[in-house]
Amino acid sequence: MLTNAGGLSREKQIEVVAKLGHLVGDAAGDEALGKRAWVLLTEAIPGGWGLWGHAHTNEELVAAARAEIGAIAAVRSAG
User: Fold this and answer.
1) In the chain, where the domains are located
2) What gap in Å lies between CA 12 and CA 52, rounded to an integer?
3) With the C-alpha atoms ordered 63, 67, 73, 76, is the resulting torsion angle positive or negative?
4) 8 A C-beta contact, residue 43 and residue 1
């Protein structure tokens, strides 16, 4: 899982890993598999998000995501 640097507190890291393990176990139909799943938590440094041929800072990426969410919401409300 890739997040921005410092994006998850230790509590959130633990929660995310537990939830991803449950998802793996549920998808496989084998709870034991979820308990054996390895989750790699990776943090992107500012400027470390490559998207649309540009190295984005965390702030640029958040702004782009918010703009995309707004565009999707506008289409849904119009349709």
Assistant:
1) 1-44, 46-79
2) 29
3) negative
4) no
3-state secondary structure of 47: coil
Calculate what percentage of the chain has a pLDDT beyond 90. Answer: 57
Number of Cβ atoms within 10 Å of the Cβ of 73: 10
| Identity of the residue numbered 63 | A
* Selection from 17, 15, 21 nearest residue 36 by Cα: 21
**Residue 26 phi/psi, 5° resolution?**
-65, -45
The identity of residue 75, as a single letter, is V
Q: Over the stretch 47-77, which tens digit does the pLDDT of each residue have?
A: 888 888 988 888 888 898 899 999 999 999 9
Is residue 4 a contact partner of residue 61, using CB atoms and an 8 Å limit?
A: yes
Q: Residue written as tokens 């470390």?
A: 48
| Tokens, residue 19 | 């939830």
